[in-house]
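Consortium newsletter contribution from the modelling node. Members have asked for a concrete example of what our holo predictions look like. Here is one, prepared for the LLP complex that several groups have been discussing at recent meetings.
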Amino acid sequence: MDGFEYRNGVLHAGEVPLPAIAEAVGTPAYVYSADGIRTAFHRLMAACTTMGARPHYALKSSPNLHICRLLRELGAGMDVVSGGELERAWLAGTPMEEIVFAGVGKSDAELRAALSGKFSLLGEEAAKFGRSDIEERGPVGLINVESPSELERLSAIAAELGVRAQVCVRVNPNVDPKTHEYVTTGKDRNKFGIDVDQVPPLFERYRDDPFLSLVGLHVHIGSSVRQTDPYADATKVVLALIDDLEAAGHKIAVLDLGGGWGAEYASGEAPSVDAYAAAMAPLIAERVAQGLRVIIEPGKKIMANAGVLLTRVQHIKQGRTRRFVICDAGMQTLIRPALYQAFHFIWPVQVEEKHLPPKRAEHLDLEDLLRCDIVGPICESADFLARDRDIPKVKRGDLLAVFSAGAYGMSMTSNYNDHGRPVEVMTDGGKATVIGERQTLASVLEREREGRRLELG
Ligand code: LLP
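And here is the predicted structure:
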């Protein structure tokens, strides 16, 4: 399946029992399965073939360098949304031309680093990560621009550097992806993209710009989009726009259809990669045959189910109305339940046979479950991993696995309440490797150690 399964009542990642990992590195810990990543990516590649598309991994979902390197080896391009992510993609071995740079608020410094092709925001420190070839790296393959103001800045910076930027215009298609409000990006009330009617005048304005090439369109409607219709609708909107632009004499060579394909947080809750591809493939087939370059930018669909968060129960508290299972992971380790009321299946790492979960769901029809709130150590009532959840009885010291935590888990962690960020481990067959060390308290405090008097002019 996704690399995690119970063997003799013990949850394993590949061949590795999770209690052994907890023993070796402590908790909370993110554990990823390399096999799970490979399986998800291979499925995705098959769907991409159907669509005639190339996947660019949305590395914000799980940015660890080792994960990016694995996905590079498997053939992914990269989708980044900040100067930091751009450097990360490059450190992971991605040639600049295989990086797509999106994001609604790019700074001048970020645009310069992306375009110049000669300097890294990391400076000389890039050498520490094995890259000392900064000067030859070349400009980023594609910049997805989100506002007329950004286009203006980009044109000025490209002129200053004497390069020609390859640009897609991100369109806001005003399509409802029918997902949580906070991960909806394709409606006209959202800050993302440019309204359809404003796009043709922009193509006119920059038609002969010597420093900008408007080569295509980008659209990304949201995340955890669990239906395929919104993709068909958004694709139709951009295709109609392509017709208009081409009728006006613009050549559209690239179509970036974004990410957002839903993952299976609960078994069976999201369409397969093939279903998403099938919704879009017939709409774009003719243009693909004529040479249109199509890109998709999946994050969750690759990574969500390829990782679990391993946490240890610190205390059990029976309140008047609720039973609390208090863990060492909380909103500082996984913020999705607090922020989006997101569902993650949570289950003990070691269970009796009668408690082997037949699927991942909010309610399982098993005997002897206890209703509880699974919460973290943080001083906030929003600090929960699950509420009103029926799980087998657990005691202090037991391990719980929070499933489908491989995407937007580690990347959204914080140091709130002075917790260090968790350790990351990747298993491959019978091997387990620490791919990100647990953050020490000293490193959390380091930036405040001295203080620095400002010399104000
Ligand atoms: N492309 C762009 C331009 C994006 O902004 C995103 C995600 C993606 C691709 C990848 O979307 P995915 O395939 O991973 O759904 N923190 C939220 C999700 C936020 C997504 C932000 N943008 C969560 O935990 O559900």
